[in-house]
Amino acid sequence: MRWLPVALVALAFVSACSKDEPKEVERPPVDVTVIKVEPKDTQVIPEYDGQTLSSRQVTIMARVDGFLDKRVYTEGSMVKAGEVMFLQDPRPFQAQLDAAKGALAAQQARWHTAQKNLARVKPLVKLNALSQKDLDDAIGSELSAAASVQTARADVEQAQLNLNYTTITSPLAGRSSYARVQEGAYVSFSNNLLTYVDQVDPIYVHFSLSENQLLEISGMVESGILQQPKDMNYEVRLKLADGKDYGHSGRITFADADFNTSTGTYLLRATLPNPDAELRPGQFVRVSLLGSIALNAILVPQQAVLQGDKGHFVIVVDKDSKAQVRPVEVGSWYRDQWFINSGLAAGDVVVVDGMIKLAPGARVKATEASDKPAPAAK
After folding, report:
1. CA 274/CA 175 separation, integer angstroms
2. Are 87 and 67 in contact (CB under 8 A)?
3. Cys staple from 290: which of 11, 18, 123, 235, with CB 3.0 to 4.6 Å?
């Protein structure tokens, strides 16, 4: 209902200005609460809408075709790096490994025979008991057998890998998703996605600045109104959807190179610790940036700033203790106050309570807000 008193105040001022009273009636001073404008360096804490996301997401996939024997992990739980998540039927792959080992043994025996035969042929060729062709054939047989052994050894390694792939583990620590394939199903290339694991410590938070916001900040910095932290090293804090402050702070670790042409916004990413996995990917949060200082800033309580047809205004008390309307240009909010970009100066006295009873030129009895007595305890 903030606009009701604003409308009444504006109406009172307009009505008082429009009436042509033949004789002014002396009225008693109106009790009002005021503050005295005192410019000072003030911390600026801009807030933006943000969303959390995993700092690293991996897909858990089956590398070999076969039946899924068992889901080992609990869906949605935190898993450790190297923790077993799924087991496939290993028996076909164990059989392939045994067959590959047998083939390797056979090739090794063939190579051994070829080596022995070559060793016998060489001295006989020197004695001209065998021809050069016989030697060449023996050398070729030995080399061929050696190559076959190498191929068979590679087949064993591949079979061992395939057998190992039937035990499916997580490559990182993080929060698991639900299983996309159930136990007993046959897994092949078309359905080998089993689940996801999201690393949540640290966690990322994406938020964006509009082009107007970025230009406003740049203009304030260039004009000396705003001082940014050294090396743009802002402290990042979060407020959760229920209004609770998140217990850890972070830093901005990424700024996009370009504006998004679809949204006209500039993407930033903050990285925050999340040791207790309190934050999950996809949550909406309010992002606060700490570190900027507004130099010689003028702030007034939000209730002191009214709005009429011509924009924002405040009621000030002049040197004759009379109420006057003062147009102002407002900036952003800071807690329960407005930054005033123009319209007020040091020493101005601004009414913060009692405006509803005022008319232009009305005499006032001003009480400093800090001097106003506290209400009696009930």
Report:
1. 12
2. no
3. 235
**Partners of 175 in the beta sheet?**
78, 198
Q: Write the pLDDT tens digit of every residue in 208-255.
A: 999 988 988 888 888 888 899 998 899 999 999 999 999 999 999 999
Q: Are 75 and 221 in contact (CB under 8 A)?
A: no
- Has residue 116 been placed in a domain? yes
Q: Are residues 304 and 260 in the same domain?
A: no
| Helices vs. strands in the chain: H and E counts, helices first | 4, 24
Q: What is the pLDDT of residues 192-206, one digit of tens each?
A: 999 999 999 999 999
**pLDDT reported for residue 24:** 56
Please report, for the domain that includes residue 342, its CATH number: 2.40.420.20
Whether the per-residue pLDDT at 26 is higher than 80: the answer is no
Report the number of distinct structural domains present in the chain: 3
Q: 244 is in which domain, residue-wise?
A: 47-55+200-291
* Whether the Cβ atoms of residue 33 and residue 352 lie closer than 8 Å to each other: yes
Is residue 257 exposed (0-12), middle (13-18) or buried (19+ Cβ within 10 Å)?
Answer: exposed
Residue 359, pLDDT score: 81
Nearest to 52, CA basis, from 170, 175, 202: 202
Q: Which helix (H) or strand (E) holds 161?
A: helix 132-165
Please check whether residue 324 is in contact with residue 361, taking contact to mean a CB–CB distance below 8 angstroms.
yes
**Measured between alpha carbons, how far is 355 from 303 in angstroms, rounded to an integer?**
10
